[in-house]
Amino acid sequence: MPLLPEEPQIHESAQGPRATPASGRVAPTPRPVPGPRPAAPPRPGRPGPARPVPAQRAAHAAPRPGPSAPAATPQIQLIPASAEGALDAAEEAVDLLLDSGRAPGDVLVITTGEPHPWAAHELSFGEAAYWAQHDAGDDVFYADASAAERAASRPVVVVAVNGGTDAVAALPKALGRARTLLIVCGDPQTINSVLGAGV
What we know:
Layout: E1 75-80, H1 86-99, E2 107-111, H2 117-123, H3 127-136, E3 141-144, E4 154-160, H4 167-177, E5 178-186, H5 188-195
Parallel strand pairs: 1-5, 2-3, 2-4, 4-5
């Protein structure tokens, strides 16, 4: 009996994607993501996977703090660079973050010396347009250290210590803007003297 157009034939071999790679092929290994990331939201129309419950570390583990506890200190990463190379190092860090899946709106870049060329270009259209892009929060935002106080906190803050008189004062302020990760590109001795030896 011939099939009618409204009755497509489904073969048993068409069962969706394979759970294991075909013989002779190597399954790709995902690239590590720099720094902590929030869990991905569930896909629309499907219930999200159950979030794993952290296992008890030990019977004597301290109780978890309540909602009034302060936020955790962000992870700090240091990328050694000269003042002349700090901006390039920051650009490479941003590229790596974006390539690894970080959303552009998650990243704030602060310069302590000369402004980033993007910031200088956007400021040529006026302060209102420049800060409107910040408020939209959908792209990487570049600010100099003096303007960073106006910038809202973001999950990742990248600081290019590229000179300037505000370099030392900018680091604690940048740490206050970073929610999960602070990447500092500059002279390790200067950075460690400001942020501590744990960097």
